[in-house]
């Protein structure tokens, strides 16, 4: 069992940890993943390299936690707990609300710049891409799976639908417009995706 | 008016052109976009740098044409003309056929490796990303727009649907699974996307 640190030490290390996250995210956004180093993160955060290696084993580990923290901060700023999706009983309204919050996050430079650097690396670096998808992206997608399963229980979604595929009808178009800049991103756009995904484009 | 070259010269320059395309695609797949140079492409193709500059103004131009050529070759190999989508009158069957052919292309290393290198660069290099989307990706997406408009004329798609958004319901999920490796790619998967996109996931 690890001894509980004194309050002052906890506060100090929490401050260092946040400085290291900020340094890692800003650095990867500026120079890209391949040129980001633990040394560079340490220098920018104003800590010794050993401070980083005490807590993390690699730059990928630091960045993974920095992005997890960024996601939690964004969720709190948007006024909801991280790792949950609203369930008001109105599936369309709930999905639209979550996607609108995602639009806000995607166009926020604090999120966008480092996230693009990481996403670009993940496209060509299979190991990194798979690790970040497994630890960052897939857990978020599973929240949609949970919400769609609840909707199947209430009859708002057909029971024969695979929720893991269904969520992609509204999540992936937004992701592609953001990643590849294939079109503008707006609330109207994501609202439309939800409508089409729920009801299809063929005559009802 | 330009004089028509003698047949031998045409054949020679067609051969050089193809060698340059192959060199550009293999090089970008191996070293990534930033480290690909006109000099490197020329060396690998066995031509002088000036031969490349006679036809193209930059490595981006060479790559753009190489990818256009690759797409045309793939279309011919799949047994259809490039720049058209089938219209048998059965929208679901036509979309499934095109997406199955896209699956084949996405998992073909000759396409996948250079395309990943270019897509990764486009995520962080806005100018390049926008140029390649405008010249390579958007023209392909417009073929879906045309097919969905034809389906609106026959009543297979509702008249109030925006075809440019609707196509993303089946194209973007496949694109994201390929780009970010968020899930396996198969014919069953793309068939399911078409079904959900046409009929939605809510009870009919």
UniProtKB/TrEMBL annotation, chains A, B:
Identify the keywords attached in UniProt to this record, alphabetized: DNA-binding, Transcription, Transcription regulation
Superkingdom of this entry's organism? Bacteria
- Please indicate if the UniProt record lists DNA-binding as a keyword: yes
- PROSITE patterns registered for this protein in UniProt: HTH_TETR_2
* Occurrences of domain HTH tetR-type (ranges): 14-74
Which InterPro entries does the record cross-reference, listed alphabetically? Homeodomain-like_sf, HTH-type_TetR-like_transc_reg, HTH_TetR, Tet_transcr_reg_TetR-rel_C_sf, TetR_C
A Pfam family assignment: TetR_C_11
The UniProt annotation gives the DNA-binding region as 37-56
- The answer to whether the entry has keyword Transcription regulation is yes
> What's the protein called, per UniProt?
TetR/AcrR family transcriptional regulator
């Amino acid at each position: 069992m690890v001894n509980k640190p004194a309050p002052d030490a906890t506060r100090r290390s929490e401050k260092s940890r946040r400085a290291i996250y900020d340094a890692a995210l800003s650095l990867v956004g500026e120079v890209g993943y391949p040129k980001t180093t633990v040394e560079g993160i340490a220098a920018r955060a104003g800590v010794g390299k050993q401070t980083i290696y005490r807590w993390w084993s690699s730059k990928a580990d630091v960045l993974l936690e920095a992005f997890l923290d960024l996601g939690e901060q964004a969720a709190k700023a948007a006024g909801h707990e991280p790792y949950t999706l609203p369930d008001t009983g109105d599936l369309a309204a709930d999905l639209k609300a979550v996607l609108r919050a995602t639009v806000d996050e995607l166009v926020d430079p604090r999120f966008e710049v480092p996230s693009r650097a990481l996403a670009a690396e993940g496209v060509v670096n299979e190991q990194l891409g798979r690790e970040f998808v497994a630890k960052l992206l897939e857990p978020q997608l599973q929240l949609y799976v949970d919400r769609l399963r609840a909707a199947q229980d209430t009859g708002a979604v057909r029971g024969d639908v695979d929720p893991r595929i269904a969520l992609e009808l509204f999540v992936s178009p937004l992701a592609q417009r953001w990643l590849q800049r294939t079109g503008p991103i707006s609330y109207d756009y994501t609202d439309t995706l939800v409508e089409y995904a729920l009801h299809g484009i063929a005559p009802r």
